[in-house]
Amino acid sequence: MSFTTATYPGTGARNTEAFHYSQAVKVGSIIKTSGQGGWDTEGNIVADTTAQIAKAMENVLTALQAVDASVTWRNVYSIKSYHTDLDATFDVMVEQMRTVMPDHKPIWTCVQIGKLGIEGMAIEIAVEAAV
User: Fold this and answer.
1) In the chain, which end has fewer C-beta atoms inside a 10 angstrom radius, N or C?
2) Please, what are the domains in the chain?
3) C-alpha to C-alpha distance for 19 and 131, rounded to whole angstroms
4) DSSP 16
5) What's the predicted TM-score (pTM) here?
6) Does the pLDDT of residue 1 top 90, yes or no?
7) What is the pLDDT of residues 17-48, one digit of tens each?
């Protein structure tokens, strides 16, 4: 089976080069993203937790669209989120999911962990989408 990997300009491309991984992959009709954090185009982690989660969700969509520009949140059927402080981020994550996917409810795995890959990250989000 063949697959196609993709990345997006700015932080996505820098992370791909620095850490040897792709931002998204398409296998057949499925697109999966790597974990996306709340970083801006310069690679800075957004300090405010609510804004960081919103930015991570934006980066997820950017990663998906790097593979297929027609993909939207309507294509997402599975979310995995990794939190360093679930008490501080859970409700914000739920609100973000309601905002970007008001018409459907994907499956969701939500885990608290001790540390994420980049200092200052409160959350990392990976998704799967069908196209």
Assistant:
1) N
2) 3-130 (3.30.1330.40)
3) 28
4) H
5) 0.96
6) no
7) 999 999 999 999 999 999 999 999 999 999 99
